[in-house]
Specification:
Blueprint: E1 3-11, E2 15-22, E3 27-34, H1 41-57, E4 63-71, E5 75-76, E6 81-83, E7 93-94, H2 96-100, E8 108-111, H3 113-123, E9 133-138, E10 142-148, E11 151-152, H4 191-203, H5 221-229, H6 233-257, E12 261-265, H7 273-286, E13 296-299, H8 307-322
Parallel strand pairs: 1-4, 4-8, 9-12, 12-13
Antiparallel strand pairs: 1-2, 2-3, 5-6, 6-7, 9-10, 10-11
Helix pairs in contact: 3-8, 4-6, 5-6, 6-7
């Protein structure tokens, strides 16, 4: 009897990764191609499918593909499209499901990476058995996937859950966001956001910092974390401020969605207590009394190195079980 598997694909601006996973999330094969090498999406998909086909062939006919899940920037699960993603080589609206369905008889599902992470957490990770939870992805920007009553919240146009683009500090004098507005949460809470915070604190302080001579483009979230671990005052203040902003906003999110748990995932979440402790304190300090002590703030239990493709593959199992 053939093992049922799902193909997970993570489309990134530089590389596109894929994996073949069984229902328990075990990887049977993985690979990648360079996204940026392809000027035409049809040529890109043909090359990607060829690599996946070779990986399937190496499994010697022992598996049966149940579907293909794709996580992509600006992926719209309702329309089956990637819509105006600024960091991909192809502009406009890309009918990804339509194009990939030419190669596969089984279902093809596409959504954004945060939604894929939420489904992955529900199928394989720490949210197993939960009906109401939120995954916050802390990478270059801030993404969020919301599961309410056991269903992924997708909205009327497939764009629900953009917590990163809710206002934390509205006004013309506040931080400019890539979305065109000012004061969005992700301008403060993200890898890019903590870099901006770090340099603002650095400019206003005369305290020593091992990162004082590092340029903005050279600086990484990991460098700030490593400095904080060594006791760097500026780095620790940057994490404290970032956590405070996140916790403050999550208190509003709890009032809106009443989740059982909130999972932090992605680059900044790897800073452990430096991000979790100030976030949890600010969350509890700002919650309505009814919610205090009732919402868990947890790290993701998905393997961070494979999370994008694992989460994408989980879309297939979720579709089969829930039709969404």
């Amino acid at each position: 009897m053939k093992k049922k598997v799902a193909i997970g694909i993570d489309v990134g601006g530089t590389n596109t990764a894929f994996g073949i996973f069984d229902r328990e999330g075990n990887s049977l094969s993985e690979g990648s191609i360079q996204t940026k090498e392809f000027d035409e999406v049809e040529v890109f998909l043909a090359a990607l499918v060829e690599k996946i086909s070779l990986a399937l062939q190496r499994l010697n006919g022992t598996v049966e593909v149940e579907g293909v899940g794709v996580g992509a920037p600006m992926g719209n699960i309702i329309n089956g499209t990637i819509e105006n993603a600024v960091n991909l080589p192809w502009s406009g609206v890309i009918p990804l499901v339509e194009l990939l369905s030419k190669y596969y008889d089984s279902p093809v599902i596409v959504t954004n990476d945060a939604n894929a992470a939420a489904v992955g957490e529900m199928i394989y990770g720490g949210a197993k058995g939960m009906k109401n939870f939120i995954v916050i992805t802390l990478g270059t920007g801030l993404g969020s996937g919301i599961v309410a009553d056991g269903k992924l919240l997708i909205g009327a146009a497939g764009m629900a859950g953009e917590i990163g683009h809710t206002m934390i500090r509205p006004g013309a004098s506040n931080r400019e966001c890539a979305c065109g507005r000012r004061g969005c949460l992700e301008t403060y809470v993200s890898v890019t956001g903590i870099k901006r915070t770090f340099f603002k604190i650095l400019a206003d302080s005369i305290a020593d910092s091992e990162l004082r001579d590092v340029t903005f483009n050279e600086l990484t979230g990991k460098m700030i974390y490593q400095a904080a671990k060594k006791g760097d005052v500026i780095a620790k203040q940057a994490f404290d401020h970032t956590g405070e902003m996140l916790g403050f906003k999550l208190a509003d999110v709890v009032a809106s969605f009443n989740p059982e748990a909130i999972f932090l995932f992605g680059g900044l979440s790897l800073a452990k207590e430096f991000i979790f402790e100030p976030t949890k304190k600010a969350l509890e300090d700002n919650l309505m009394e009814h919610y205090k002590g009732k919402v868990s703030l947890l790290p993701s239990k998905i393997n961070s190195q494979k999370a994008a493709i694992v989460g994408a593959s989980a879309l297939v199992w979720n579709h089969k079980e829930n039709g969404s």
